[in-house]
Design brief:
This protein has 326 residues and is α/β, with parallel strands linked by helices. The protein is built from eleven helices and 15 strands. Helices cover 35% and strands 18% of the residues.
Amino acid sequence: MQILVLGGSVFLSRAVAEDALRRGHTVTCASRGSTGSVPDGARFVRWDRGDPVPDELASSSYDAVVDVARLPSWVRAGVAAWPDAHWVFVSTVNVYADDTTPGGRPGTLPLRDPQPDDVDLATDPEAYGPMKVACEQVVRGGAASWTVVRPGLIVGPGDPTGRFTYWPVRLADGGEALAGGRPEDLMQVIDVRDLAAWVVTCAESRTDGDFDGVGEVHPLGDLLAEVARGVGVAPELTWVPQEVLVEQGVEPWMGPEALPLWLPRPEYDGLGTHDPAPSLAAGLVLRPVAETARDTLAWQRATPDAAVSGMSREKEAAVLAAWHRR
């Protein structure tokens, strides 16, 4: 197959290009080229998607296009250029307007109102989900066939956010570790390599429909135990209730003083608990969390500038001390 990856140099889009090359497909990666190189064996075409489609791309035909864009204008230009290709559009679970209901899947949860205009997320981060809704609509309305994949938390080697990376690094360091909420709170992650492989499978089979690109749902205590197993340690977790975390100024999910994987409950009971069954039935194959944790730690240790998001050890110690004083 001739596959066009719009991107190809960072995290998921790069993993897609790598997987497609391993399967023997001819891969073209189109991007600005400012965030890294594309995989060996892929053809690179420089394209700032705010500019017209370059002639060398516009004159080519592709069996499939993989797009991770968030700006509706970019997706409109792409679909107009290659309407006959099978489009695999990587969206997000942030398109859903309901973050409270566990077990959601496409068709069971309401979507946010679409934002058809490009919005600068630096000034309005809440526009991310609505713009992705609009991008999905462009793909459905203009491509000959399409798969929409809505990932949750994508993790693994190469993660530029460092959200999940916090945990393999923290648990490998040993000692008492702060865990947020309750061990029975539910959460899911998906390894970038598993998601990428499934994206290529959807392109090969021209899979039709909307799917959530998510992993199995685990109690958070079990998930962190798997992370610890993957990095070869026995975890020493102290679970601190969310009201205490809030009192201590701990941010949820991501950020410089956040506790990754912790989400306020019940308002976010649904965000990390989407039903993976339809995606598994459509060919998604998942590896164990322990394997993801092992490989993430190895990548982080081999990559000096790898991002690790989350609170400092000093902040963690202060929160644990406050909890033990209660």
